[in-house]
Fold this protein.
Amino acid sequence: MDGRKLRLSRYSVAYRNRLLEGAAHAQKYLRQFSLNIDPCLKLKPDQIDSTLDGFVSQMHASERASGKKCLGLAKHGILFFQVMRPNLRHQLKESWSTLKAWEEQSPGKLRNPVPLPVLMALLCCARVKAETSDNASSKEKWFRFNPVC
């Protein structure tokens, strides 16, 4: 248990909490098969991968049934295993592939555009830098600065 705390201590509190929450959901999944996280961490990478693939599939089914967002929990459950066993990195191909397919099914999110006052402030700053620049090349670059691109 001390090794687990030590490995998790290098991450921020918020990220650590997300990892632990994902691990709790993975633990709940493993209990269905009378397993625990610690013995599961000692399995071969391909066994862990197939187990986590089942976990991701169950989380996806749970999201569809309940409407609650579970994608992040599933992702952090996998990441928890990778944090605890760094050699698993790049070996959980099946799990990550299933998670990627789930992400691709989710509708995309549009980013909010830059507010007009912020855009105008950027443009004004660029014009001021262009006017105060001694270098002709720099002056031209700042004058042509187009924050929309």
